[in-house]
Amino acid sequence: MNTRISNREFALSVITAILAASCMSLTGLFGKELTTFSSLSLVVFIRFFAPFLILTWICLVVFDENPVTHRIDRIDGARALFTCLAQYCLFYYLSKGSLLVAALLFSTSGLFLPFITRFAKKDPIKKKTLAACLISFIGVAFILKPTAGFDSYMIVGLLSGFFGACSQFVMHHSSKKQNTISSTTKMFGLSSLYMLAILLIEGNLGELTKVAVSLSDSVSFVIVIIAFSLSTISNQSLRTKAYRRVNRPASLSPYLYTSLIFSGILDWLVYNTLPTWNTYAGSLLIVIGGIIQAIRTQPQIKASHS
Predict the structure, then answer these.
(1) Rounded distance, CA 49 to CA 192, Å?
(2) Nearest one of 272, 235, 9, 222 to 103, comparing CA atoms
(3) What are the angstrom distances between the C-alpha of 45 and each of 127, 179, 214?
(4) Per-residue model confidence as pLDDT tens digits over 165-196
(5) How many domains does the chain have?
């Protein structure tokens, strides 16, 4: 049985999760910019490989250790696979839609997480959690506008939330056993290999040459790549730190919803895009559901009889 964490530890995990959410919004912005001139698979590959190079350099120079020699197990492979799938779906939607709606669909991971935990660990789902998930699902329905006909790219965006939940479940498990920089570096390295295989299957390896030429010719492109990499590293590292402190990964879901605020602001500042009414309504319901789901209850103490 997990020991209840202190309020201080929970507060630290909340702050860390909010910082991760802001980095996730920035990652979405830089990724959306990259999708305008590169293939989807190449953008996702860069999203993993560039941070992997930076983290490997940090490990070698700062910590004097070689992350490539670290033992890799099935958990590492599963986390990398689910992360790849989630990011592929997310960036597909980003190439079609807005930052805010992309963040909304990705944040539905909190909706799927209790059911994944129930399936994998046989943990019971509380009535409060079921009610919260129902409210959040109604919010998702508002965003998808089923009466107007489903947009296929929104369904793909919703899948980013499902695969993100799978990744969070595995991340929560691995964060208890590995240090942050080791697990994050391995995840980026394995994800890079997955995406390299996809590029090979698609016959798009030649696009890597295009990126190399752009890096040598365009300072702005280099800046975007570096910013993309740093925001990606910060997002993953901060998430891992946040999950390490808590017993239930779903308890951090509502705080990760702050990415909606950051993404909405970036949409307005960069693209002059304002949300539609159904996006406002859906966002509100998803956040309400997440807050209900994460409310911490005091454990019942049995009275002692003297």
Answers:
(1) 5
(2) 235
(3) 41, 24, 16
(4) 999 888 776 655 666 777 788 889 999 999 99
(5) 1
DSSP 257: T
Q: At which residue do the structure tokens 């239930």 appear?
A: 248
Is 173 in contact with 75 (CB distance < 8 Å)? yes
SS3 95: coil
Determine the Cα–Cα distance for residues 180 and 78; give it in Å rounded to an integer. Answer: 17
Looking at the domain assignment, is residue 269 inside a domain? yes
pLDDT computed for residue 19 by the predictor = 93
- Residue 92 is assigned to a structural domain of this protein: yes
| Phi and psi, residue 115, nearest 5° | -75, -35
Of the pLDDT bands very low, low, confident and very high (cuts 50, 70, 90), residue 247 is: confident
Residue 158 has, within 13 A of its CA and on its CB side, a CA count of: 16
Please give the residue range of the domain that contains residue 108. Answer: 7-294
Distance CA 108, CA 298 (A): 26
C-beta of residue 69 within 8 angstroms of C-beta of residue 185? no
Give CA–CA dist 285/125, Å, rounded.
Answer: 20
* Mean pLDDT along residues 39-66: 84
Does 1 fall in a domain? no
**Residue 212: inside a domain:** yes
pLDDT of 64 above 70? no
* Angle between helix 258-271 and 7-34 (nearest 10): 30
